[in-house]
């Protein structure tokens, strides 16, 4: 934990941390980062075929370990994790009130951390083509209509705004893509938070969730979904973690 500035989470807050996987190579930190992984994480990393994917996996796991150690007096190497039946990682040991969720895309890894609150996060790169046909087949009709109404130059940004919001909600629910994407939908309005609507068949209340959209770089969009803890929403703040 040496060199990591301690942080404190207030009730209702979400801290979102970003890192660039390439920093590990640029600063000669790959070997020291690998030393933090568990044997299971080493095995999972070896399964990736491409070096870039292995580096992204390594950066994601080290981001989780080092950032959690900003909030608890635990060495990054000492955290252990367990995956739910839908693949959501959670803290196994030591016992902690921290809750987290992770995501990665080309050039960026992201971690959202809360105190006891359920959270989901997703990040996408705007530099890759948007599969608009996915919206036509799987998004709610209202979202697909919005995309089709836009000029082609604006569709990529809007698609990934919808996609990251949907992913963040699905991940917060702990079900991933087991939730049909056309059974919940978002309304996006300038200068206002995204508004969620949910089909009654999903047995959930839209008012129970708080959303935010963040732009850590000009090429990336992040969506955060957190379960509300009271009448007022806590702050969702964005920061950068430098590997060390």
From TrEMBL:
GO terms for biological process: lysine biosynthetic process via aminoadipic acid. InterPro entries: 4-PPantetheinyl_Trfase_dom (IPR008278), 4-PPantetheinyl_Trfase_dom_sf (IPR037143), AASDHPPT_N (IPR055066), P-Pant_transferase_sf (IPR050559). It holds the Pfam family ACPS. Keywords: Transferase. This is 4'-phosphopantetheinyl transferase. PANTHER family: L-AMINOADIPATE-SEMIALDEHYDE DEHYDROGENASE-PHOSPHOPANTETHEINYL TRANSFERASE, PHOSPHOPANTETHEINE TRANSFERASE. Residues 32-113 form the 4'-phosphopantetheinyl transferase N-terminal domain.
